[in-house]
Amino acid sequence: MDLKKVLVVDDEEPIRNLIVNVIKKIKPDSKIDTADDGLEAVHMLTEERIPYDLVITDVEMPGSIFNGIDVLIQAKEANKNTIVFVCSGNPESRNMALREKAFEQSRDVYLGKPFLISELINFIKKAFPLNFSA
Prior knowledge:
Layout: E1 5-9, H1 13-26, E2 31-35, H2 38-46, E3 54-58, H3 68-78, E4 83-88, H4 91-99, E5 109-112, H5 117-127
């Protein structure tokens, strides 16, 4: 599986931009979409039916009717092969993700915030092992 299409979902713009920049650095030819809340992400997954290879989503997005767990569920329903990285600064979010069977694929990942850029890069390279720039 190649890393061609990515969706980055986070209510914090600096985090979204950081993740996008990391992906652009290691896989410049990837198409990257962003969403600033769960509602926008769920719309992209269900209405626009965009087939993402990787979805990186924050869990807690205050003010949105959908959280990152909802995004995860919709991503898996849209494409069971989509790899999902769930991020949160709240340790309870990992338990929520586990209850929803977030990590059924061995390449799905929970990233605790704050995370190291090197952690993100390593997880991406492990999930998509071929053809990286850096």
